[in-house]
Design a protein that fits this description.
By secondary structure, the protein is an alpha/beta fold. The protein folds into 3 domains: 253 residues, 3-Layer(aba) Sandwich (Rossmann fold); 164 residues, Bacterial polysaccharide co-polymerase-like; 171 residues. The chain is built from 25 helices and 17 strands. The protein has an 8-stranded mixed β-sheet with strand order 7-14-13-8-12-9-11-10, with helices on both faces. A 4-stranded antiparallel β-sheet has the order 4-5-3-6. It has a 3-stranded antiparallel β-sheet with strand order 15-16-17. Helix 1 packs across helix 12, helix 4 packs across helix 7 and helix 8 runs antiparallel to helix 11.
Length: 764
């Protein structure tokens, strides 16, 4: 078997690897957290640990809540059911003035109005509730609020009460006592009122419902009156406007002499303008035609107008031209046949000359006629243009008059329509003021209830008890969460990530001398068994190491480090040649606990060169050898850091199989840090429910950095019964040192028989 890495069981059955070689300074691999199940188990243990305090709190709260509940006055509730009309089917259209569009909005609005201040004020004034002792603010209340105010001396000064102040105070109280419950998928609303008197509750509920309906009726009547007044004023002004517009229209007709515009007069003017325009166009075409002919005439310079088309088209000119052509043809024929000198030829020549003179005269006559026609056409065109301009002016004037008249007529029509509309609305409003549709009606009247609705005494007490239990449980869990001390072996392994060598039970009512020998005096106790467990873990930590040096230290004084060193040394002395060295040179306790003579030589003297026989002592009734501090040095660190001390310690390790050193706490001085690299193993003592885990972790890290090998943690001064009750992890049952068949010591919920001790034999 390889002795350098042996699996052993410590703490709560957690299996760790113990490294025994001196050169290996980090010795353990720890299991991880158990997760959510572990958290729930911790919560449960926290509740079990303080179950009596939680139960006491619950009992106290139960009694107080019961007294308070039975001292409270009963409160009764009465409910009236109101139907809110849909808002459709208004009797008269004037209600459009104050109706609300949308059924859903109308329903929600009426619910808010039902619990409005105006309705409550009307109900309070109608019932004069300030005269009711329950609502009268002038009567002093005996409630807790007034009690504490009177104790604090901050009671308000006397107040002047008038009717308005009384109404305000009562309305504020009533507002906190009413509740509205709209019935789903309907137009019903349940109005509930709570009061100490059932008759008062029913009366107030019915009055609020009736005042809600009356308030709506009054509001509608008021609106109708306001609208009617407005419409009457508006009708009067509209009547005046209509009269003025009609008078203006009549005056305009008389002034303009208009009988009918837009009828025959307008048609006649249009026809005149159309005829004048047609004549003008024809005259202008005639004038252009004559102007062209006139231009051709003026272009003739030699008096020959035969090229003028207007002259050529003249019938006389055409006839004369035909005669001339015939005479010239005959003259040509006769001249050929008779000769130019023939009298017939000469006579015919004279006729031709006469015809030419007649043709020239005819052409000139046509030209003169053309010039006269052109002048006449130009004059006619100008006359027609002037006539058309006058017709157009007349039509424009007529259109203006028609427009002005149309404006006046529209004013008359508009004013008449407005007047007739407002007159109709005024008549409707007057009728609506007499006939109004209610916003709602009462479906079920409120009746007095014989059973109070609160306080629900049983429910109140049960709720208080449940809340107190929850508060107590939360407080217990919070206290444990805030508590960072090491609770026990399992907690030490989880927080410190180191194995637990043993859990040393708490021993009460013993002095220091007896406590240092408790392992010898009561060898069958739980304490002795725990010391053996620690011894076994230390022995198994390095089976191949012939001589071991064990350093025992702690965080702060008062953790039982010296007592543990003595009893553990006694246990080792039963099996091995063991020496206990008291190295606490500042506050030596081991020598007095072992009842050694004062002033005895010790480790300081041995380091200084004194013989070993003069520096060690056998403890009474024990094979244990002990070396006290000896002469106290002025600076213990100089002694510990010296080479002579190292040589002395090595010499002692050669003479003894087991050397146990009781050193000072790590938090206060650095002696243990100096000794850490010189020893084989370190056992760290932690006092249960006292030492903070962060402080322990810090000092463990310091020891490791100094070169020490931490073997494990010894949880000291553990109350096993309280640990079993609080945490469910350490319980001793049917324990008997004489036989192990029925004797087991429980750690962390698992039982580990101490078989390694060989049945309790001194030669374990």
């Amino acid at each position: 078997m390889n002795s350098k890495n042996l699996p052993i069981h410590v703490g709560g059955g957690a299996e760790v690897a113990v490294v025994g070689a001196p050169e290996s300074r980090v010795g353990f691999s720890l299991p991880s957290s158990e997760g959510d199940g572990f958290e729930i188990l911790e919560y449960w243990r926290s509740l079990v640990k303080r179950r009596w305090w939680i139960a006491l709190l619950a009992v106290a709260v139960t009694v107080a809540s019961a007294l308070f509940a039975f001292a409270m006055s009963p409160v009764y509730r009465s409910t009236v059911t109101v139907l809110i009309e849909s808002g459709k089917g208004k009797i008269l259209s004037i209600e459009d003035v104050y109706s609300i569009n949308g059924q859903r909005e109308h329903y929600q609005t009426q619910i808010e109005i039902l619990q409005s201040r105006e309705v409550l004020v009307r109900a309070v004034k109608k019932l004069r509730l300030w005269e009711n002792p329950e609502y009268d603010p002038r009567i002093k209340s005996s409630g807790l609020r007034d009690f504490f105010i009177s104790i604090a001396g901050s009671a308000s000064t006397a107040k002047e009460w008038n009717e308005d102040a009384l109404v305000d105070a009562v309305v504020e109280k009533i507002g906190s006592q009413i509740a509205l419950d709209p019935v789903r998928l309907s137009q019903l609303v349940k109005l509930s009122v709570e009061s100490k008197n059932p008759d008062t509750a029913a009366l107030v509920a019915n009055t609020i419902a009736s005042q809600y309906i009356e308030a709506d009726r009054d509001a509608k009547f008021k609106i109708s009156q306001e609208v009617s007044s407005f419409l009457q004023e508006r009708v009067g002004s509209l009547r005046e406007n209509l009269t003025r517009s009609e008078q203006a229209l009549q005056e305009y007709r008389e002034r303009k002499g208009v009988v009918s515009v837009g009828g025959s007069s307008q048609a006649m003017a249009s026809q005149q303008a159309t005829g004048a325009l047609g004549s003008l166009i024809a005259a202008r075409a005639r004038r252009l035609e004559l102007e062209n002919a006139y231009a051709q005439v003026r272009s003739v310079l030699d008096g020959d107008y035969s090229s003028v088309s207007a002259v050529l088209r003249d019938p006389i000119v055409i006839a004369e031209s035909a005669k001339l052509s015939d005479a010239q043809r005959k003259l040509s024929e006769l001249a050929e046949s008779l000769g130019p000198q023939h009298p017939s030829v000469v006579s015919l020549g004279g006729e031709i000359s006469q015809i030419k003179r007649s043709l020239g005269a005819a052409q000139k006559a046509v030209v003169r006629s053309l010039m006269r026609d052109y002048e006449v056409a130009s004059g006619t065109e100008k006359s027609l243009e002037q006539a058309l301009g006058r017709v157009r002016s007349d039509v424009q004037n007529l259109n203006r008059e028609e427009f002005d008249l149309a404006v006046l007529e529209r004013d008359v029509v508009t004013n008449r329509q407005l007047y007739e509309m407002f007159m109709s609305r005024a008549k409707e409003t007057n009728l609506a003021a007499d006939v109004q549709a209610n916003v709602g009606r009462v479906v079920d009247q409120a009746v007095p209830d014989v059973r109070p609705v609160k306080p629900k005494k049983v429910q109140f007490v049960v709720m208080c008890v449940v809340v107190s239990l929850l508060i107590g449980a939360a407080a217990s869990i919070l206290i444990d969460r805030l508590d960072n001390t090491v609770k026990g072996p399992d907690d030490a392994e989880q927080r410190l990530r180191l194995p637990t060598l043993a859990a040393i039970p708490q021993v009460k009512d013993l002095d220091r001398l007896k406590l240092g020998r408790y392992f010898l005096d009561d060898n069958h106790s739980h304490y002795a068994e725990a010391i053996r467990t620690a011894r076994t873990g230390i022995l198994l930590s390095g089976l191949d190491v012939k001589n071991k040096i064990l350093l025992i230290t702690s965080t702060v004084p008062g953790e039982g480090k010296t007592t543990l060193s003595l009893n553990l040394a006694h246990a080792h002395a039963q099996t091995k040649n063991t020496l206990l060295i008291d190295c606490d040179m500042r506050r030596s306790q081991a020598s007095r606990s072992a009842d050694l003579p004062p002033g005895a030589k010790g480790i300081t003297n041995f380091v200084a060169g004194a013989p070993l026989e003069e520096c060690i002592y056998r403890v009474k009734d024990s094979p244990l050898m002990m070396m006290p501090v000896g002469d106290l040095p002025p600076n213990p660190l100089e002694v510990l850091l010296s080479n002579k001390f190292k040589e002395a310690l090595a010499s002692l390790a050669e003479h003894f199989e087991m050397v146990i050193i009781d050193s000072p706490p790590v938090e206060l001085v650095s002696d243990s840090l100096v000794l850490a690299p010189m020893v084989t193993n370190i056992a760290y003592v932690v006092k249960a429910m006292a030492t903070p885990a962060p402080l322990v972790r810090k000092n463990l890290v310091r020891l490791q950095r100094a070169g020490g090998k931490i073997l494990g943690v010894v949880v000291n001064d553990l109350d096993f019964e309280a640990a079993r009750m609080y945490y469910g992890e350490y319980g001793a049952a049917t324990y008997s040192y004489g036989g192990y068949s029925n004797a087991k010591l429980t750690y962390g919920g698992s039982s580990t028989a101490k078989a390694a001790e060989g049945g309790g034999s001194p030669q374990a």
